[in-house]
Amino acid sequence: MRKDIPLDLVVVAPDPAWARRAEGLADELYVSLQPLAVHVEHIGSTAVPGMAAKPVLDLQVSVHDLEEVEGTFDEALAGHGFVRAPYRQDHVPAGSDDDPARWTKRLWTRRGSREPDVNLHVRVVGSPNERLALLFRDWLRAHPEAVPAYARFKQLLAEAVADLATYADVKDPVVDLVVTVAEPWARATGWQALTTMTVRPAARRS
After folding, report:
1. Relative to the CA of 97, which of 29, 107, 113, 172 has its CA 20 to 30 Å away?
2. How many CA atoms lie within 13 Å of 21's alpha carbon, on the beta-carbon side?
3. Is residue 45 within 8 Å of 53, Cβ to Cβ?
């Protein structure tokens, strides 16, 4: 995690409004980013009911080509208050020998406006990092008994570290642990990333 990402280390109690605001923004961005956006999904801790989180919405845009979207998204997202961050690499899970090039992404952020703060992660359709974000969200949604423990871990971590880079570096291995449990669940239930994605009204009209 790069240290030039804005610091947002205050973990707060869950807010039921997060889901509504995220879904509304996802619908807006899906329309604004056509035809390059394949899906726009609410991910991360604010997408899990009952989860304490930093009050920053995480959204994921799935695209076919990261290089292709950069300039177009810069222009389209500027109207929504977003700027592109230099961060282009996701964490590769511990123990994986996967090519880091498969874990690339683009990131736009919005801070300090009258609208909610947002991290907008743009990842390639079918990539392992696109899939992991959805699996992590859906496993926690399906296992609410795990939510308090993970939330408490984040609260203690946010109190113990001084910067977002350290926060991310410590949190990533814990995410890896959750995923090792989530993968057998995915196989047992037949979970697939494609089945978890929202079909938005704009998509049905096209």
Report:
1. 107
2. 14
3. yes
Q: Determine the residue type at 195.
A: T
Are 193 and 135 spatial neighbours (Cβ–Cβ below 8 Å)? yes
In terms of DSSP H, where are the helices of the chain? 17-32, 66-78, 128-142, 147-160, 164-189, 193-196, 201-205
Q: Could you state, in chain order, the average pLDDT of each consecutive group of 10 residues for the chain (206 residues)?
A: 49 93 96 96 96 95 97 96 95 93 97 90 97 97 97 91 85 93 96 82 44
Angle at CA of residue 107, ends 101 and 112, nearest 5°: 160
Token code pair at residue 115: 């609208």
pLDDT digits over 1-34, tens only?
344 444 456 889 999 999 999 999 999 999 999 9
pTM for this structure?
0.90
DSSP codes joined into one string, 84-112 = EES--BPPPPTT----GGGGB-EEEEE-S
